């Protein structure tokens, strides 16, 4: 199995439910945020991103919300499917000049049929 | 297909035996980096490179070396591996400008005995 999951917070949902995964970031100067999905045995895959001049962005079945006041980021997945089961990471870019992504520890999403 | 390719995917080695993990990207990205992933600690940056012949330490560089002789390749070198370097390693690439998605390889699971 994937060692990354051993100490992760876990969110368990039923298929068809909406899921909300939360992330707190640390640097108020961070200007860009990404959510990644990591399935067992694979590398992180991009889901959706948002810049600090926005507070909401929608993709296909996913929405990212950004609250800069409390430095909080959330990922909402609509109509969660078993294929959504994975570890989800948020990442913040801490340098406005060039890439400096810092990753959270992740949340494991378990979707039951 | 845009991708980051790491080799090998799995490696078991003995303490002190030098090894190299290769990473190659086909997206003409300037920025490449190496991360290690450990339970409860998320993804931590080992080294990064902003362009050919330009490399710098990340957050956990001890015991590792890198080189960037060509834009597409960014090998990770462990001159004298130790058991505390047992981990899951990921290579990533992106454009240099902050605020762009990073693409990840499939990972290399390294065990040092």
Summarize the structure.
The complex is a heterodimer of chains A (113) and B (113). Chain A has strands spanning 10-14, 19-24, 32-38, 45-51, 56-58, 62-67, 72-77, 86-93, 101-103, 107-112.
Bin the helical content of chain B. under 10%
Strand residue content of chain B: over 45%
- Tell me the number of strands of chain A: 10
Query: What structural class do helix, strand and pairing data of chain A support?
Result: mainly beta
Structural commentary:
The complex is a heterodimer of chains A (113) and B (113). Chain A has 113 residues and is mainly β. Chain A has no helices and 10 strands. Chain A has strands spanning 10-14, 19-24, 32-38, 45-51, 56-58, 62-67, 72-77, 86-93, 101-103, 107-112. In chain A, the strands form 2 sheets. In chain A, strands 1, 3, 4, 8, 9 and 10 form a 6-stranded mixed β-sheet that branches. With 113 residues, chain B is mostly beta strands. In chain B, 0% of the residues lie in helices and 50% in strands. Chain B has strands at residues 4-7, 10-13, 19-25, 31-38, 42-51, 54-57, 65-66, 76-78, 87-94, 103-104, 108-112. In chain B, a hairpin with a 3-residue loop joins strand 4 (31-38) and strand 5 (42-51). Chain B is globular and about 40 Å long. The A-B interface holds A 2-8, 31-32, 34, 36, 41-46, 49, 51, 89, 91, 93, 95-101, 103-106 and B 4, 31, 33, 35, 37-45, 48, 50, 88, 90, 94-107.
């Amino acid at each position: 199995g994937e060692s990354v999951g051993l100490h992760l917070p876990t969110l368990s949902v039923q298929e068809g439910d909406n899921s909300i995964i939360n992330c707190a970031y640390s640097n108020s100067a961070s200007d860009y945020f990404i959510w990644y999905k990591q399935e067992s045995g694979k590398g992180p895959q991009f889901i959706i991103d948002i810049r600090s001049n926005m507070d909401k962005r929608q993709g296909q079945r996913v929405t990212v919300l950004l609250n800069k006041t409390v430095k909080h980021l959330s990922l909402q997945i609509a109509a969660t499917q078993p294929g959504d089961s994975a570890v989800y990471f948020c990442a913040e870019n801490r340098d406005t000049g060039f890439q400096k992504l810092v990753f959270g520890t992740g949340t494991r999403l378990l979707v039951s049929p | 297909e845009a991708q980051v390719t790491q080799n090998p995917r799995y490696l078991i080695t003995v303490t002190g035996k030098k090894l190299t993990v290769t990473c190659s990207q086909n997206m003409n990205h300037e920025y490449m980096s190496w991360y290690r992933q450990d339970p409860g600690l998320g993804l931590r940056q080992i080294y990064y490179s902003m362009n050919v012949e330009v490399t710098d330490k990340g957050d956990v560089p001890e015991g590792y070396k890198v080189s960037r002789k060509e834009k597409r390749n960014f090998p990770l070198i462990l001159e004298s591996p130790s058991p505390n370097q047992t981990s899951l390693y990921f290579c990533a690439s992106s454009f240099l400008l902050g605020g762009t998605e990073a693409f990840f390889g499939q990972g290399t699971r390294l065990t040092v005995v």
